[in-house]
Amino acid sequence: MKDKLVIARYEAKGHRFEILVDPELALKIKEGKQVSIDEVVAGDFIYKDARKGLKASPESMKEVFGTDDPKVVAVEIIKRGELQLTAEQRRKFIEEKKAQILNLIARNAIDPKTKLPIPVKRLELAMEQARISIDPYKPAEQQMEHIVSQLAKVIPIKIAKAYVAVRIPSEYASRSLKQIQAMGTSKKVQWREDGSLYMELEIPAGLQQELIDKVNALTKGSGEVKILNVG
Predict the structure, then answer these.
(1) What is the pLDDT of residue 32?
(2) What is the per-residue pLDDT for 44?
(3) Taking Cα atoms as reference points, which of 33, 6, 23 lies closest to residue 141?
(4) CB 226 within 8 A of CB 165
(5) Of 122, 145, 181, 225, which is least packed with CB atoms within 10 Å of its CB?
(6) Stretch 36-45: mean pLDDT, rounded?
(7) Which residue, 207, 168, 209, is CA-closest to 191?
(8) Which residues contact 187 (CB under 8 A, 6 or more apart)?
(9) Is this prediction's pTM over 0.70?
């Protein structure tokens, strides 16, 4: 862990607080994920200058964080502060976050003219054209809406839902139910007299083809998917 530690720094009320952290795990905490602080932070000390080994006083911690518990303070430093990343670490994290955002947009957005999903490659080119910057610290979900509004300046795009009907033949119905429900929100589930399953779902509009492929795979091509509405 030592070879990749970076400083997490937070300044408030005239005080500086620093800790040594694993940047990848610290980033997960910033994204709101559950990670043990013991795995993230090297040592039990809160510093005012980590490089010089100067420790922050309990009084300054209480003034800013309301406690001098080093674990509680460490979490707050990570959440509120900045990671002092190397240029290579920052580039790597931005690329990873960009991939997450592109995948998220591709799942949720459509071209409003065709009502069809937009390929990731087209989204990536549009992102470059619009000169969109990615925040490596902010969760992809929190950046999506703003980035889509920026993309809309260069390509037709909107976040949308698709309302679909699915019919599964009786021999595949019971084993397919949960897998299909997992792709969206069930609006109607009916078991027909012949044992077949009829469902209506609301799914992210970008998942239309994925749902069709899933139903075909589950039913060996005998299932049916009908797009009722996209908008």
Answers:
(1) 87
(2) 87
(3) 33
(4) yes
(5) 145
(6) 93
(7) 168
(8) 163, 200, 201, 202
(9) yes
